[in-house]
Design the sequence.
């Protein structure tokens, strides 16, 4: 009896300790709300209201990134849902954007240039016709179509999607090409190994007008690797964004690709990424238990695909808040703790009117001055998914996504040992 | 009317007046033209200069560098080195800036003779324009002088297209009226003189005493009438066709 009492006492103590340690601080919700709202401001104010194009970054003279527009379109719906902007303003801005893309932007077989001029919409520098960035834009457009179902937005989003000739982007091969340039034709790079490519293949396979063969789904590699105790299908760079982007729109929790569940896979990738930073904190002063996150971002030597193992694991002590911010649904406790840590300790240098600036590196005493559209985008979409699942909810209603799931995946509930975070 | 008689033989008909107004016209039109040119010039070149300003070029290079670093991050090591491409981009931007400077210089050099040509055209045009005023003024001045010399036969005819036509017509009517009055005055004085002569001849038949008294009076009248006739003869009037 005595033993039982002691046992329950210790158990109760442990549970309460765990509650205290890991429970969301009462102000976490307020923190997420503030971060989400500030991050939304980027997409509202760093846009050209006359055509809806959104800057790639706050860097002076920055062009529009069509991927940032994709994230931005969703963020406008989030802002409308949360009452930060009026519905008619959200509707008008989204409609303007889709009209610009449909009527004014140069395109090749429905694919758009990665970077376009903020005013004219014309190709910038020698930017490529980009398959993944077109897919990210279309994901945003289709989301808006579901959110404003039965409206002109829905119609335009459908027209933009149906116009894309995905088969052309195969270039006669079995995996999708990364891009095309008018000067040199198709790039010699293909989406042939696991990374953020799922959203691209989902849209390409789910297309009614120009679908690529179902066999293409199996054509890209799914390399298996491990770091510490985390085994996963890993991306070449090991950058966290590769485990996040498709998940911003697609709810993978009950989707299975054979015996692979990409939701679980991303959870493992986030944990491995954190562990990798912790294991390297002796080498780089930026890394700490609550200061981690290796993803593609700006760094002291320019934009780099920073990442952890398994993968190439390029890193120099640069941490981007978007790594943790874009991973909130995968590991709520550790990610929010990291974001709050960065906010509390470095907020004066790293937090501004649009939320977190892109990255920082204590070892090199380098602080990003710019906000980056796609990194802002993954933060707001994943915060909303973690808070309400709104992006998943609307996007998963899309018929193209349903077609892709029916053609390539199976739905089943995960086993008891696999729990949502 | 003989057209050639009214053709311009001399364009600087009133040199002082015309040159004065030609100069004023040239200055005014040149100033307006130059102002318009400068505004247009600056407006056009401002865009060019802005597009190739240090700031914009540097922003473009940063953007290009950013795009390259994105592509390098995405495509991996096999992608062409961003650094070497950026060196090329910097060189290209320097070349572009030099090219723009050269274009500006050439445009400026071409603009100068064209502006001078425009000023010349304005100058020549102003002589023609001022002549349209100066011509009638010259004619008026000449006719008024003739009238003051007693020649009422002059008429204020001006060339087709010249200004002050209404004034010229009114001055012609006025001169014609004066002429008519003078002709009438002349006729009357001549008639009076003739009647006086006839009366004088008749008086010579009268007795001496009466004759002397009347003769003295008549002589005085004759003198006055002669004086009137002589005076009217000094005025030249146009003979009306009967």
Sequence:
């Amino acid at each position: 009896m005595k033993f039982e009492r002691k046992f329950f006492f210790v158990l109760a103590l442990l549970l309460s300790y765990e509650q205290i340690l890991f429970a969301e601080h009462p102000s976490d919700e307020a923190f997420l709300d503030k971060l989400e709202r500030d991050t939304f401001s980027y997409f509202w104010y760093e846009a050209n209201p006359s055509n809806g194009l959104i800057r790639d970054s706050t860097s002076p003279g920055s062009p529009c990134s069509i991927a940032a527009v994709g994230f931005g379109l969703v963020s406008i719906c989030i802002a409308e849902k949360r009452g930060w902007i009026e519905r008619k303003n959200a509707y008008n801005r989204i409609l303007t954007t889709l009209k610009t893309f449909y009527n004014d932007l140069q395109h090749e077989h429905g694919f758009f240039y990665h970077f376009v001029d903020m005013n004219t919409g014309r190709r910038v520098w020698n930017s490529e016709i980009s398959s993944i960035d077109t897919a990210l834009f279309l994901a945003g457009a289709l989301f808006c179509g579901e959110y404003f179902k039965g409206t002109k937005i829905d119609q335009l989003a459908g027209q933009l999607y149906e116009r894309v000739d995905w088969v052309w982007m195969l270039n006669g091969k079995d995996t999708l090409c990364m891009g095309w340039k008018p000067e040199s034709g198709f790039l010699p790079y293909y989406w042939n190994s696991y990374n953020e490519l799922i959203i691209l293949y989902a849209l390409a396979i789910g297309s009614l007008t120009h679908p690529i063969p179902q066999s293409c789904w199996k054509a890209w590699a799914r390399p298996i690797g491990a770091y510490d105790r985390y085994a996963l299908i890993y991306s070449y760079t090991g950058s966290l964004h590769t485990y996040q982007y498709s998940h911003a729109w697609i709810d993978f929790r009950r989707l299975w690709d054979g015996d692979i569940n990409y939701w679980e896979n991303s959870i493992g990738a986030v944990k491995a990424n954190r562990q990798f930073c912790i294991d390297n904190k002796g080498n780089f002063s930026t890394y700490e238990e609550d200061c981690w996150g290796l993803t593609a971002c700006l760094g002291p030597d320019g934009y780099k695909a920073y990442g952890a193992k398994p993968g190439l694991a390029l890193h120099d002590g640069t941490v981007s808040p978007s790594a943790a911010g874009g991973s909130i649904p995968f590991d709520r406790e550790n990610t929010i703790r990291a974001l709050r840590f960065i906010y509390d300790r470095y907020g004066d240098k790293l937090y501004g009117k649009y939320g977190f600036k892109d990255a920082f590196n204590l070892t090199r005493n380098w602080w990003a001055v710019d906000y980056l559209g796609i990194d802002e985008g993954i933060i707001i979409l994943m915060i909303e998914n973690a808070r309400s699942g709104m992006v998943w909810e609307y996007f998963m209603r899309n018929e193209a996504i349903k077609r892709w799931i029916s053609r390539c995946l199976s739905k089943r509930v995960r086993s008891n040992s696999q729990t949502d975070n | 009317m003989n057209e050639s008689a009214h053709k311009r033989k001399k364009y600087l008909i009133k040199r002082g007046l015309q040159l004065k107004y030609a100069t004023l016209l040239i200055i005014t039109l040149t100033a307006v033209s130059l102002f318009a040119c400068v505004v247009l010039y600056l407006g056009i070149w401002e865009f060019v200069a802005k597009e190739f300003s240090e700031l914009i070029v540097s922003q473009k290079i940063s953007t290009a560098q950013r795009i390259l670093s994105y592509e390098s991050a995405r495509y991996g090591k096999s992608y062409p080195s961003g650094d070497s491409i950026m060196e090329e981009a910097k060189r290209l931007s320097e070349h572009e800036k030099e090219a723009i400077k050269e274009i500006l210089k050439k445009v400026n050099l071409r603009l100068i003779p064209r502006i001078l040509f425009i000023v010349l055209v304005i100058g020549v045009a102003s002589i023609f324009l001022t002549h349209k005023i100066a011509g009638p003024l010259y004619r008026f001045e000449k006719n008024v002088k003739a009238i003051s010399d007693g020649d009422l036969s002059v008429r204020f005819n001006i060339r087709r297209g010249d200004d002050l036509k209404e004034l010229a017509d009114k001055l012609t009517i006025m001169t014609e009226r004066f002429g008519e009055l003078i002709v009438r005055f002349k006729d009357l004085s001549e008639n009076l003189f003739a009647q006086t002569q006839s009366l004088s001849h008749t008086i010579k038949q009268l007795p001496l005493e009466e004759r002397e008294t009347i003769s003295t009076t008549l002589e005085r009248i004759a003198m006055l009438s002669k004086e009137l006739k002589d005076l009217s003869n000094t005025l030249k009037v146009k003979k009306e066709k009967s």
Summary: Chain A touches chain B through 24 residues (CB under 8 Å). Confidence is low (pLDDT under 50) at residues 19-24, 416-421 of chain A. Chain A has one domain: 28-411. Chain A has 16 helices and 18 strands.
